[in-house]
């Protein structure tokens, strides 16, 4: 075997172990008994110790020096292995293990604190997580910006300052659009009771409609919807509410976007660095375009309206046009995952600024709840009513995902670019969506984005697919056009 062959064989084993660790995480958030949390923390720590040892194995450096890739794919594999290795060797093994152990335990603590509306029960373990992640960031940054080092895990080749500049460009138009919309009469909200088993049956139908392969996946329930895995085993979760089936349906479509990306990657990349989504921003471009530009479109909601009538009978919405307005209703709310398209990115900007301050040491964990509540009041104009609607609503910080939040808005920006290109490439898109047929859109996305996995850098894959340099203007134009039409602006 050549050095390249030996390196790739080693990498596939490491990736397989990483998939096992991911499956433990999926189990913890879906079916694991609550009392198993302390043991699961030790299990996660043990497997992280093995993974860290492999990722920082000196033989990787030797193979990298000796490997001679024969083509573009081989060069990209080495690029990603070297990037991961350079990061892994900077983080002490005991720190990597401690982070895995602490975040596994913190997830359970967060879930209970959220249920109990008790911020004080969560803050001590969050303090530990923030301290450990700061140490990791400092090790990775080596004198540079700690938050930039965190972002690199989720959106390679992007800095906090670059993200802040994009957000600064977006905010004025978003705020102006929101102000104009909120002055107009609000469409009717969905009311009534919707059987949760029926929701889950319809959500399976939606998952299949958007191309999710249930032979290599499954749909379960969790407190916080997520997608897990890659290659031949890609699982998603959703959640149900008896009074809000949209939460279930659009969470499912969102997570199917993630899962379809992973399922759509060239199988030749299986269990290699190229065999997963290249970044969370590109991942979010898929989940957001599935959920919003496709799933909340006038055409598709017309089909969904008929599906809901078949499933639930008369549910109080007169017709497909009224249903489209209800699905896209701009309204006050606290929860990021339930936010309308106009306001969603403002929720992300709040989290971005707070977590950046936490990593810089400018904001202490003990001050987080007050800082969140003050910022929310300033941005949205009304006060947070309870912790589960405030700083306890998201799982991300409990499991150490600092630097992840801004990728949601980067995904929206990327989705805006992709949708502009998609509409030009598939002129019959609306007619297809009106029949519940997403294949024109999903096939285009698979061909131009998903199949490539990690072959190209994040911004490069979006530029290749869309034909434009990624920026927020297509997204903002789409939002203004859509909501001006909905609200008669």
Summarize the model shown.
The chain has helices spanning 3-30, 37-55, 58-66, 72-88, 93-116, 119-141, 146-151, 160-182, 196-209, 245-264, 280-294, 298-312, 320-327, 341-360, 368-380, 406-425, 429-434, 439-448, 458-466, 473-487, and strands spanning 219-221, 227-230, 233-238. With 489 residues, it is mainly α. Strand 2 (227-230) and strand 3 form a beta hairpin.
Structure, explained:
The structure is a single chain. Helix 8 (160-182) runs parallel beside helix 20 (473-487). A three-stranded mixed β-sheet has the order 1-3-2. It is globular. It is built from 20 helices and three strands. The protein has helices spanning 3-30, 37-55, 58-66, 72-88, 93-116, 119-141, 146-151, 160-182, 196-209, 245-264, 280-294, 298-312, 320-327, 341-360, 368-380, 406-425, 429-434, 439-448, 458-466, 473-487; strands at 219-221, 227-230, 233-238. The chain is mainly alpha-helical and 489 residues long. It has two domains: 3-144, no CATH class; 160-487, Neurolysin, domain 3 (Orthogonal Bundle).
């Amino acid at each position: 075997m050549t050095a390249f062959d030996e390196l790739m064989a080693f990498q596939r084993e490491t990736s397989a172990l990483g998939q096992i660790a991911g499956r433990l995480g999926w189990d913890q958030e879906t079916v694991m008994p609550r009392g198993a949390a302390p043991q699961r923390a030790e299990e996660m720590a043990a497997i992280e110790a093995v993974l860290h040892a492999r990722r920082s194995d000196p033989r990787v450096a030797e193979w990298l020096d000796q490997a001679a890739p024969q083509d573009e794919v081989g060069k990209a594999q080495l690029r990603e292995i070297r990037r991961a290795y350079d990061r892994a060797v900077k983080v002490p093994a005991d720190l990597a293990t401690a982070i895995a152990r602490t975040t596994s335990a913190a997830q359970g603590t967060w879930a209970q604190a959220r249920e109990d509306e008790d911020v004080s029960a969560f803050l001590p373990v969050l303090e530990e997580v923030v301290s450990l992640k700061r140490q990791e960031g400092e090790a990775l940054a080596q004198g540079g910006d700690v938050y930039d080092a965190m972002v690199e895990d989720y959106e390679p080749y992007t800095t906090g300052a670059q993200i802040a500049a994009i957000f600064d460009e977006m905010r004025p138009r978003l705020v102006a659009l929101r102000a104009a919309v909120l002055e107009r009469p609000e469409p009717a909200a969905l009311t009534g009771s919707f059987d949760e088993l029926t929701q889950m049956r319809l959500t399976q139908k939606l998952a299949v409609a958007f191309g999710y392969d249930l032979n290599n996946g499954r749909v379960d329930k969790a407190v916080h919807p997520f997608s897990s895995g890659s290659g031949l085993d890609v699982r998603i979760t959703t959640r149900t509410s008896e009074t809000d089936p949209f939460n279930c349906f659009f969470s499912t479509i969102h997570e199917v976007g993630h899962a379809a990306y992973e399922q759509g990657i060239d199988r030749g990349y299986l269990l290699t660095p190229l065999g997963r989504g290249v970044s969370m921003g590109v991942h979010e471009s898929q989940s957001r375009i599935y959920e919003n530009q496709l799933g909340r479109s006038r055409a598709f909601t017309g089909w969904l309206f008929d599906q809901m009538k078949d499933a639930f009978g008369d549910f109080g919405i007169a017709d497909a046009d009224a249903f489209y307005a209800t699905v896209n209703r701009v309204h006050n709310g606290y929860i990021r995952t339930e936010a309308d398209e106009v306001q969603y990115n403002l929720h992300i900007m709040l989290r971005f600024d707070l977590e950046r301050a936490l990593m810089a040491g400018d904001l202490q964990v003990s001050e987080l709840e007050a800082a969140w509540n003050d910022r929310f009041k300033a941005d949205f104009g009304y006060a947070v009513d309870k912790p589960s609607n405030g700083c306890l609503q998201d799982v991300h910080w409990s499991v150490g995902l600092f630097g992840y939040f801004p990728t949601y808005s980067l995904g929206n920006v990327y989705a805006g670019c992709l949708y502009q290109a998609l509409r030009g490439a598939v002129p019959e898109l609306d007619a297809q969506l009106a029949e519940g047929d997403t294949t024109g859109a999903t096939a285009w996305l698979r061909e131009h984005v998903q199949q490539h996995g990690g072959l190209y850098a994040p911004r490069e894959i979006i530029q290749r697919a869309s034909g434009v340099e990624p920026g927020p203007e297509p997204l903002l134009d789409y939002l203004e056009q859509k909501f001006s039409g909905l609200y008669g602006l």
